[in-house]
């Protein structure tokens, strides 16, 4: 079974530029998550999709971050304009479908995109 | 108070020894719990799920104490390869979906 795919793996941009990250979840996984992980900290949830609908985006800085999952499969996270403090690893994860069983909340992560803003 | 708290460590553990550490959570309505392992510069990987009072998988044992609102992870006969950061995740099911919250992680260093 193919895992969660993310691209690019690394990105270096200057502040005030824009950047986009792509994620393709495990086939059949209805729930997709975007996390921001700053060095030395645990992942922080930015946005959670259930199919193509947003379940939770309470911690997404909506003035500069946006995300979409138009067809309920792959997703894009965008930052515009980037700030120095956005330097982090952006992780995408997917899980099967909530509610069927506790195990459906088990998340599988992609390799992440390491963003450096200079 | 953070929703999910972990001792950041590091826990320096002699090879072959036993190490245990806790994760405390503030929301008593939390329903399921997970331990993830994260190696340096890698993504988190699911280690164990904890749905009832505990779970055991080989050298790893997770226990849940709902009264005191913490889960623990115990590693027996530590191997050098167990060196990693262990992330605790707490899941709360809501009407509109579920909410998963990560702790900051506990770093474990196993030394020869």
Helical amount of chain B: under 10%
Q: What summary fits the major beta sheet of chain A? A: 7 strands, mixed
Query: What is the average of the pLDDT values of chain A?
Result: 92
Structural class computed from helices and strand pairing of chain B: mainly beta
Parts with pLDDT < 50 across at least 5 consecutive residues of chain B: none
DSSP strand content of chain A:
over 45%
Euclidean distance between termini CA atoms of chain B: 37 Å
Q: Please mark out the parts of chain A with pLDDT under 50 across 5 or more consecutive residues, or reply none.
A: none
Helix and strand run of chain B: EEEEEEEEEEE
Radius of gyration of chain A, in Å, reads 14 Å
Number of strands of chain A: 11
The coarse silhouette of chain A is: globular
Mean pLDDT of chain B: 92
Per DSSP, the total helix count of chain B is: 0
Structural class of chain A: mainly beta
- Morphology call of chain B: globular
Give the topology string of chain A: H per helix, E per strand.
EEEEEEEEEEE
Percentage of β-strand residues of chain B: over 45%
Q: Classify the oligomer.
A: heterodimer
Largest interface summary: A-B, 24 and 26 residues
Q: Radius of gyration of chain B over alpha carbons?
A: 14 Å
Tell me about this structure:
The complex is a heterodimer of chains A (118) and B (112). Chain A is mostly beta strands. Helix content of chain A is 0%, strand content 47%. In chain A, the strands form two sheets. In chain A, strands 2, 4, 5, 6, 9, 10 and 11 form a seven-stranded mixed β-sheet that branches. A four-stranded antiparallel β-sheet of chain A has the order 1-3-8-7, with no helix packed on it. Chain A starts with a strand and ends with a strand. The mean pLDDT of chain A is 92. Chain B has 112 residues and is mainly beta. Helices cover 0% and strands 59% of the residues of chain B. Chain B has no helices and eleven strands. In chain B, β7 and β8 form a beta hairpin. The mean pLDDT of chain B is 92.
